[in-house]
Design goal:
six-stranded antiparallel β-sheet, 19% strand, globular, binds nicotinamide-adenine-dinucleotide
Length: 489
């Protein structure tokens, strides 16, 4: 399945998150939402996502896709290679919307719903081609959290889930396929139990919302992203494992501590209490501020998990692997594609072409990406070490115009323990627009002197250098401006 354009139905919290995930992975998005405020909200999500993904991974992302809004759900479905519905959680509304989309979409297009818990068999009921329908239930923020639960209905073909899983995997997600159709899938059944119990604790005046959040974030919440729940109980059972744990704590389930499936009545009094306590907890912080705090911490957690190759950190590693493979399919034996962009109208000079500084800027972006990929990131620089560019030579070979899509490939020409000699090519498709040759020097920034790079960085440099060893020296390497030109005035 080749997906280039994704049609989104609904651009709220979840639809906006999907827009960001697909766009930042290079897919074009056509979005339908009847609310005129949707473009603003999606734009805000996209800003948050750009900021988070730039910090999340050292590997450069593909060039961002194009976002188009439409006032017509049929148009969003008709021009899409994959459709994701994220409209309000009302069954009649979703059934009608999915039926409309299914008649407009090509018959080979998978149509997925973000529903938090509605059964797929009910949602696909009125669709044309219901066999290509699946639930693809994500988690907020969709652009950072990898989990997406896949659940087909009675009429869904298994191949539909394969195709959806392939696309979700390509954008860095972790598809979890349910073997059976069930209301609420897996995660929301667990979350609902927690949420119901939390509401009881507030309703009965036993704890405030802040105390409940503290009970999670200072204890079990820290463990969950590493081990889920069963692996933790195995450890808690000691050498005798899960059987011992069940023996010790199982009987408590019979007492029971919790209110099971009883639901507190959502009285005005309970809602007012929740609102008051939640306002106090936010302490004047806006939703945007809270979102950024959440996202910054999620990025740090994902990066820590990546180091240990567990849970969502393993997904991040695999995702970075596919991003790198996409750049150099034969195993890095080609120049690395380290930066992609569009020529901004602001970079165009009086001749109608991108000006010199634009090329230097693109070369610098590629250099930064190269440095990040060998471990020279913000923490490294903060530790008092960095590479400084000591020389750049740019050749302008072709003209580029506003909105041209360009990529910068990088070849490592030589390296020793203090120096990197790199050669960037600025390409528009197969056209070579410019080259930039650079010499970088490794520096101890606290002492202001050149110093050898550490073994970890040199090992990564060696890897790239060995992978590119068979590449011929680029045309134009080592060029300089010949002097003198004509006679001196
Ligand atoms: N919020 C979450 O944490 C979360 C998590 C996972 C899944 N979901 C599911 O995602 C879906 C969307 O939830 P949300 O939180 O983004 O809600 P939301 O209220 O933030 O967004 C819903 C959007 O749908 C738009 N809309 C209204 N009528 C529409 C129609 N006929 N066609 C298309 N769009 C329409 C609204 O204008 C709004 O922008 C729901 O099914 C929900 O269960 C939500």
């Amino acid at each position: 399945m080749t997906v280039r354009t994704v049609g989104l139905l609904g651009g709220g919290v979840i639809g906006g998150g999907w827009a960001a995930r697909f766009l930042l992975n290079g897919y074009d998005v056509v979005l339908y939402d009847p609310d005129p405020a949707a473009p603003r909200r999606v734009g805000e999500q996209l800003d948050n996502a750009r900021r988070s993904l730039a910090a999340l991974t050292l590997v450069p992302l593909p060039i961002e896709g194009r976002l188009t809004f439409t006032a017509d759900p049929e148009e969003a479905a008709a021009c899409a290679d994959f459709v994701q519905e994220s409209a309000p959680e009302r069954i009649e509304l979703k059934q009608a919307l999915l039926a409309t989309a299914s008649r407009a979409a090509r018959t080979d297009v998978v149509i997925a719903s973000s529903t938090s818990g509605l059964r797929p068999s009910l949602l696909q009921r009125d669709m044309a081609g219901p066999e290509r329908f699946t639930v693809g239930h994500p988690f907020n923020p969709v652009y950072l959290l990898p989990l997406v639960e896949l659940c087909g209905g009675e009429l869904t073909e298994p191949n539909t889930l394969d195709r959806a899983a392939e696309l979700y995997g390509a954008v860095g997600m972790r598809p979890l396929r349910l073997k059976n159709e069930i209301d609420g899938f897996i995660a929301d059944r667990l979350l609902e139990a927690l949420w119901r119990e939390a509401l009881w604790l507030v309703n009965d005046g036993i704890a405030t919302v802040e105390e409940i959040d503290d009970a999670i974030r200072f204890g079990p919440g820290l463990r969950w992203s590493v081990m889920g729940t069963f692996l933790l109980y195995r450890i808690a059972g000691g050498d005798e494992g899960v059987r011992h744990f069940m023996h010790q704590f199982g009987p408590a389930l019979e007492w029971p501590w919790t209110k099971l499936t009883d639901v507190p009545e959502l009285t005005d009094e309970l809602l007012a209490t929740l609102e008051r306590q939640s306002d106090a907890q936010a302490n004047g912080r806006s939703i945007r501020e809270l979102e950024r705090l959440r996202d910054d911490c999620l990025v740090s957690v994902l990066q820590a998990l990546r180091v240990h190759d567990v849970g969502a950190g393993s997904t991040l590693r695999r995702y970075e692997g596919t991003l790198l493979a996409r750049q150099s399919p034969d195993g890095a034996g080609t120049p690395l594609l380290l930066h992609e962009t569009r020529i901004s109208p602001a970079w165009i000079d009086y001749n109608g072409h991108a000006t010199e500084s634009a090329y230097l800027r693109m070369a610098s972006e590629a250099t930064d990406a190269l440095l990040a990929s060998i471990g020279v990131d913000a923490d490294y620089v903060a530790s008092g070490r960095s590479y400084y560019t000591v020389e750049t030579h740019i050749r302008h070979l072709n003209e580029s115009h506003a909105d041209d899509k360009v990529g910068v490939t990088t070849q490592l020409l030589g390296a020793d323990d203090k120096r990197l000699h790199v050669f960037h090519r600025v390409m528009r498709g197969d056209d070579l627009l410019a080259t930039a040759e650079q010499m970088l020097l490794h520096v101890d920034t606290t002492r202001g002197r050149a110093a050898p790079a550490p073994a970890s960085v040199l090992a990564r440099v060696r890897q790239i250098s060995e992978a590119q060893a068979s590449l011929p020296a680029p045309d134009g390497v080592g060029r300089r401006i010949e002097a003198p030109v004509g006679s001196r005035p």
